[in-house]
Amino acid sequence: MEEESLANRITAPKEILDEFAEMAEEENVDPFAETKLKNQIAHRESDYQKRRHLINREVGVSSDPFNQGEGEEGESGYQLAMRLNHLEREEQRVKRLIEQKQQADEDEDKMKLDGDKTPPATARAPASEEMEVEPAVPKKKRRWDIAEPKDDTKKADSGEWSEQALEEAAAPKKRRSRWDATPADVAATGDAPKKSRWDQAPTAGPVSIITTTPISFTGTMAVPGAPFILTGNVDVDKHNRYLTDDELDAVLPSTGYVIVTPPEGYVSAQPARRLAASTLTPMQTGFHMQEDSDAAAAAAAAGLAPELPTEIPGVGSLAFFKQEDATYFSKILKEEDESELSVDELKERKIMRLLLKIKNGTPPVRKTALRQITDKAREFGAGPLFDKILPLLMERTLEDQERHLLVKVIDRVLYKLDDLVRPYVHKILVVIEPLLIDEDYYARVEGREIISNLSKAAGLAHMISTMRPDIDHVDEYVRNTTARAFSVVASALGIPSLLPFLKAVCRSKKSWQARHTGIRIVQQIAIMMGCAVLPHLRNLVDCIAHGLQDEQQKVRTMTALGLAALAEAAAPYGIESFDNVLKPLWIGIRQHRGKALAAFLKAIGFIIPLMDPEYASYYTKEVTVILIREFQSSDEEMKKIVLKVVKQCAATEGVTPQYIKEDILPEFFKAFWVRRMALDRRNYKQVVETTVELAQKAGVSEIVGRIVNDLKDESEPYRKMVMETITKVVASLGASDIDERLEVRLIDGIIYSFQEQTTEDQVMLDGFGTVVNAFGIRVKPYLTQIVSTILWRLNNKSAKVRQQAADLTSRLAVVIKQCGEDQLLSKLGVVLFEQLGEEYPDTLGSIIAAEGAIANVVGMTQMQPPVKDLLPRMTPILRNRHEKVQEASINLIGRIADRGAEYVPAREWMRICFELLDLLRAHKKGIRRAAVNSFGYIAKSLGPQDVLSVLLTNLRVQERQSRVCSAVAIAIVAETCGPFTCIPAILSEYRTAELNVRTGCLKALSFVFEYVGPQSAFYVDSVVTLLEDALTDRDLVHRQTASTIVKHIALGVAGLGCEDSMMHLLNLVWPNCFETSPHVIGAVMDAVEAMRVTLGPGVLLNYTLQGLFHPARKVREVYWRVYNALYLGAAHSLVPFYPDLSELSDDRNVYDRHPLQMFI
Amino acid sequence: MSSELRYTATTQTEHLHARYTGTGHADVTKYEWLTHQHRDTCATIIGQPTLASYLAIADGESIGRIKFEMTERMLQPCGPPPAKDDD
Question: Where are the transmembrane segments (chain B) (predicted)?
Fold first, then answer.
């Protein structure tokens, strides 16, 4: 017994074991369920965003205030809406009171309960039943548990969803682990008796459900008598949909229990949306196919996925079809006799088909459907359209793509419907507003777009009257999204039109919520519109100014935030608009504490930079006292704001260095330059930024002197923070301000912290490089020490350390040379050379780069090791496939080929040429470019023949990229060694009867003529025959490339007297102008345009005149295109060439150009 | 070639060209085309002092008068547009 309990103690809790066992026997685990869920928007929403599902806006406010009729412009509708709003608020309040009372009662009950485990009589029935069923039919327990709470929830209504309950529910929604779920819930609600058997009933429910279905159960459990446990949002998936009574009857034994009626006054917590959705379908539970056969019912009961249709009558095949879609589209899923349907019903089905096509169809299907729905929008009418679209958008399993498409539909339809949309404005807003706070940028933009179009269609008055009730909605979520929507309306219809309304709202006496929202609207306007608020700045500021003295703290805070946003948007203008608020703001910082103070400080931080220097100085002094007091604050948010304000104050002109040095710096360093600040990434960044800003005023030595000793601090993150600050300060202000004593301490500290780092960090490397480079030759006395550190680290065991040492070498090379320490460089060069056998590619890349940096500063002649030793060592390294190694080596080799090719035997260079061909296949463009350039350098030193033959042979390879690069390389060789060295070789290579080679030759020629420009004049006649052949080839690509060559030649030889051959070439190019392939026609048109330059527009005009009025439209179109290009290029020059068309004159029109017929 | 390119590569330049006055298209009438030619001629004469002075000498008018007349001529240089009944 003793042993057993001990064993129990060390194993996992029983629930976990049970769950694993159940998972093991799970047959139908859907491995994609997780990823499927991830696509859903609802799945990644934060708790706050999820509130949109929980707030029931459809019931009260959201009812269309224009329902009574379009005629009486809102008056009664608006009143109604307001009244409903008020009613709802009252209702919520009463509900909350009742709930509190109930909870208090329960607490009492719990006290009573704790002693014995028997639930009170009223609550006993379901629990006792469960106990009966459980042992007898263990397999069915789960199912029964699913059923019971769901049956309850079905009857619930949204009334239970008080704000309080929601907040309780919010926390557990995120959790992923299943077994601890319910206990956590209970703990969260905090008032449920843990021990009571009664309370474990709901526990069993969700747990077992979830184990059968990987998709998290999100239904709302409301068990009578117990505080309900909310496990998340209602997810209408096939696995956790509500079971019908029929299904329950089929599953459960018919005897042995009774169905208990729910207690009086019980309402289930089912949200109204669910009810709305189910009204679409006759079946309460949505789509199921098992109705007719018992086998299917059994399969469905076992959780097997029913066959989903992919072919819908009248829609065709779809890309996918989800279970949830069946609920919405049930009417079109079955074949119906359409002749029996009314016109409205037919219309409805038509809309549904189009929507289904748009939502689930393949792109072409979607496109046509979208066009149809747009075209017929007015025919369908706003009502039927939005009745179908909006519920779909509220679906919880909606995915990004679907939402995007549906939003697109709304957008298109809005344009068409215009003012017909009015009655649906609120409904659309309810659906679209959540997009404004979506984490996805594009969703936010889409949301803005829709609301902006909506407001343009519905008009300002209607938008205001529709959204007015939401401004003081009980729920903060609604107010927040409404404020954002209002700001969009303001940007769409202009701020001035909304100003009177804003003024009224911000002064609302009825509720502080309205004032709060009004001010928030202004804040959002500022954030969204940026500097566009400037013309209305004064009005906006005056609108919210009084909020600083509001009796509600939230309003005051929001006002300060709004002012901050306005000042930020207006910067650097508009200080005069803030005159009225300066006093209350500065008084406010003395009166407030905590959050409100933070907001006030934020506003001040943004306003100070707008001020004139002397005012800025005065006001900064005023605020500094508070800032310094708040330096001590332990609140993270406050710290951040304080740092930001200090930064902003320090940056303004009026604040003197003297003041910063004396009044701010001592306290600042005491409060923020402590090890603790280095641990939090965001604080770290803020502190560094602020210090750098202070340094701009206070000077390098002031700041560096204060922190330099901390380079030897024992905490590494702190050392890093110091290093980063010093780096940034020195990089922006230089090191000339640093005196000798400080210099010694600084270099010493840097070397120390560089050596002591445990994780090799870019920060240390950058710091070292920046500081040493800033010192320049002043660093000479320390070089020996530094280089010995590098040498030591180059031989370190860790690859990272070696890499960092090599990187440091490349940064220091220039400075070492400046200091005249050539022997140190040679030493480093030799050691690096010995390290070329490095096996870690990253490290090897750095070593090669360092060697290259040394070679750069030393020069090829003095280089140690000598170039003739270095280069052969590099040849095998070129084969390394690592990008960094490739790039570093090709740079080094190119440099050697450029500067010191003569030190290396020709045979070695040829070997390198072959290796370079492989580099032409590199992914990185920089590598390919460096390789191609290297060919040029090598050809220059070796003579072009060998390199050229290597490159021409490479035109035979299969790979296109490699051929293209070879062609470019040939052109570069031609450029560096003269075209006469290459063109004969290319011409003879063109005779090869291989397509790739011929195209390659043409391409090479095209690059050659592009690079050599006017020199082309000497070679035109030699390539004409080749071009004749290519331009009359059957192959399109030949003609295209040949046209490109013609273009380059024509541009090159303009004005050099090659008109005869160019005219010949034009005659060969011209017939290609009817090509349709875009690349070919592009090349041909370019060639024709280039001919305009060489031959003059008159010649070209004569060519085009042949077809401008050709009977065939196809011909006319092409000729007019040529004519237009010609006309735009040389309109004036065409004047003398226009044909004399005086014979066309009639009695009405005279076509003589008389001025041109005059002569002296 | 991809259909994408076919639609963009050439149509874009065409759109661009169509934005300028004086360019034409497959359905331009002779009246329109010639009107543009005449206007271009006038503009060239106004814009090139040598041409303007040449005409002034030939006409026996001042250069300013020639320029003014050319400017005036640009409005319906070939007379009123033909009646639209043919299409």
Answer: none
